[in-house]
Amino acid sequence: MSALLVTGIGELVTCDPTLGDGSPLGVLTDATLVIENGRVSWVGPAGAAPAADVRVDLGGRAVVPGFVDSHAHLVFAGDRSREFEARAGGARYDGGGIAGTVAATRAATDEWLRARLRGFVAEMRAQGTTTVEVKSGYGLTVVDEARSLRIAREVTPETTFLGAHVVPQGTDRRGYVDLVTGPMLAACAPHARWVDVFCEPASPHAFDADESREVLLAGAAAGLGLRVHGNQLAEGPGVRLGVELGAASVDHCTHLSAADVEALAGGSTVATLLPGVEFSTRSPYPDGGALVAAGVTVALATDCNPGTSFTSSMPFVIALAVREMRLTPAQALWAATAGGAMALRRTDVGHLGVGARADLAVLDAPSYRHLAYRPGVPLARALDLPDPRV
Ligand code: NIG
Ligand code: FE
Asked: Structurally, how many domains does the chain consist of?
């Protein structure tokens, strides 16, 4: 067994509060990490590091846990840049444009979808993301949803069945919920870890509280964990339904009532904020600082998708959250790493304490603060460990 020593880390963010400065970010300066068998086996000051077989010197750069992007829709074809442009002229997002992506996705080959997906994952890794969740939801037939998830499974264990994205055009609503909770779920569950629903009574295309409950309970009965798209377009039942059913995460949370915040603070459901969506749809940004102050666990994710947030960049999301959601740079980084891991109920990622996966993001900067301080500058990348991977 060989050990890899990563040294010359000017600032190491571990997201392990038992390490370093004792803050939630667990920051050490002039630090060294030892990696064995793909896991962190030692963390500490450079001078005290044990011997190792291979050394990598990062020359004083900052290292943070690889970003955990816990919400993305990456299996799709087609382009919706005209829809984006129309919003500059005042058009509002209501989910209707999803139909165009569904038509293009159904027409695409497996090979094309796979290549596009792998391209997005590479783009994410080049910006520091080392864990990504991928949803279906642009197939909306038994065959097309199952193939989306099969392809997604090739790149991540964090796959989510989102047959209940919208009711497909020309389809009977009741019949579609029966399809999603019956044959479609049966075909998709073997390829999925999670089930999700677009719970948004304010959209004519999405699902109401009763339909959403049916979808989530059927998914749970099939052994899937629960996630919810909720409270994106207006206040509504999504957040409270998610908390009541013990969902790992309710995502968007753009429009929250006091009762929603109270429910989130009292439950185990993470509020996943998606500032790329507010940016792209010109919606108001939710107050992430107030959520943290209320005791809610907050995650940040890209929601990378062609309709509401076509960015793969967690650094961009962090910068937006700091500028527009009242998160501090430290809170935003925590939400993009440890928070994302909690949203996926993972303990092996989102931190760099002993035992964590050796998923490191290196910054061409002296401090994590530069992620928001230097928006739009490509500072972060996932660290490729030298061969042989230890
Ligand atoms: O997370 N809101 C629902 N689903 C996606 C958008 C899908 C689309 O418009 O293509 C979202 O915002
Ligand atoms: Fe989404």
From this structure: 2
Burial class (CB in 10 A: 0-12, 13-18, 19+), 29: middle
Q: Are residues 272 and 137 part of one domain?
A: yes
CA of 272 to the centre of ligand 1 (A): 14
* pLDDT for residue 387 is more than 90: no
Cα–Cα distance list, 19 to 28, 138, 230, 387 (Å):
7, 43, 35, 28
Residue nearest to atom 1 of ligand 1 (CA): 303
Beta carbon of 160 within 6 Å of any ligand 1 atom: no
Residue among 135, 137, 238 at smallest CA distance from 193: 135
Q: Is the CB of residue 277 below 6 angstroms from any atom belonging to ligand 1?
A: yes
Measured from the CB, is residue 135 less than 6 Å from ligand 1? no
Pairwise CA distance, residues 193 & 190, whole Å: 8
pLDDT in tens, 191-242: 999 999 999 999 999 999 999 999 999 999 999 999 999 999 999 999 999 9
Query: What CATH number corresponds to the domain at position 354?
Result: 2.30.40.10
Q: Is the CB of 307 inside a 6 Å radius of any atom of ligand 1?
A: yes
Please, which residues have CB less than 5 A from ligand 2, an ion?
303
- Ligand in closest contact with the CA of 310: 1
Residue 388 inside a domain? The answer is no
Checking if the pLDDT of 63 tops 80, the result is yes
Token output for 299: 């995650």
- 233-266 tens-digit pLDDT: 999 999 999 999 999 999 999 999 999 999 999 9
Confidence check: pLDDT of 388 > 70? no
Domain of residue 306 covers 67-343
Smallest CA separation from ligand 1 atom 10, residue: 307
Query: In this structure, which ligand is nearest to the CA of 277?
Result: 1
* Residue 54 in domain: yes
Residue nearest to atom 5 of ligand 1 (CA): 308
Residue 26: left if φ>0, alpha if ψ -120 to 50, beta else—which one?
A: left
**268-299 confidence digits (pLDDT tens):** 999 999 999 999 999 999 999 999 999 999 99
Task: For residue 303, report the distance from its CA to the centre of ligand 2, in Å.
Answer: 5
Task: Say yes or no: 73 and 60 in one domain.
Answer: no
Give me ligand 2 centre to Cα 294, in Å: 24
Same domain? 281 vs 377? no
Domain contains 387: no
- Establish if 389 belongs to a structural domain: no
* 61 and 144 share one domain: no
Dihedral, CA of residue 147, residue 149, residue 153 and residue 158, to nearest 10:
180
